[in-house]
Amino acid sequence: TAPVPSSRPSNILPEIEMSELEKFIALCHAKGIKFSYTQNGLCMGSKEHTLERATEIGQFFRDIVNTGIDAITITNPYLMEIFHLQSPKIPITVSTIANTSSIQHVRRYKENGASKICISQDSNRDFDLINAIARMELGVVVVLNNPCLHMCNYQTYHYLLDSHAFDTGDGGAGFNPFPSIKCKLKKLEDLSELIKSRWIRPS
Question: Are 186 and 193 in contact (CB under 8 A)?
Fold first, then answer.
């Protein structure tokens, strides 16, 4: 368990101790590989604003930094601010789950301390946006193998369900496959949805 959620349910993620993570990161560094920690849960049901949970989050972020991470990916802008205040030298990437799709979004995340933007998956082919972000001297990241429906109306709901399926000490809400099932059924009904998805060709 952790005091902050991931965008993946707890039942599909391995349980590891901070000491194990520290050893893995050291191995990466020995091989010349940088390590970015992903903390991309979208919602905590306002628990992050309680004194108890806020204290736990602050300590969790300190522990993560002490493992030797080179960067971190965050979705929640409030958690982003907390992390940046505590560890201003660690680069922050805005998760694609934050659905960044405009320069106005980018400017606000830059104010939060972000140095790299993983843009909205629906904006993968928006070259004007990508070039504009690059001109702001920020890194740009795109998800290459996105299988989601283009402009899916269930996307945010899906991310919310997954956030609440992560065990932050209260057991979590349990995995709910409903949005994934809806997605797969839509693709079976209309194969053109596979082409519309925002994946990027290897070429």
Answer: yes
- From residue 137, give the alpha-carbon distance in Å to each of 99, 101, 104, 113: 20, 17, 15, 13
Torsion over CA of 105, 4, 116 and 100, rounded to 10 degrees?
-30
Residue 60: which H helix or E strand, with range? Answer: helix 51-66
Question: Distances from the Cα of 148 to the Cαs of 22, 44, 126, 195, in angstroms?
Answer: 33, 24, 17, 11
Phi, psi of 100 (to 5 degrees): -70, 120
Report pTM: 0.86
What does the pLDDT look like over 55-99, one tens digit per residue? 999 999 999 999 999 999 999 999 999 999 999 999 999 999 999
24: CB partners within 8 A, 6+ apart? 35
Q: CB burial class (10 A; 0-12, 13-18, 19+) of residue 182?
A: middle
> Residue 130 has which token pair?
């990508």
Specify the long-range contacts of residues 128-134, CB closer than 8 Å, at least 24 apart: 129/101, 129/102, 129/103, 132/103, 132/106, 133/103, 133/106
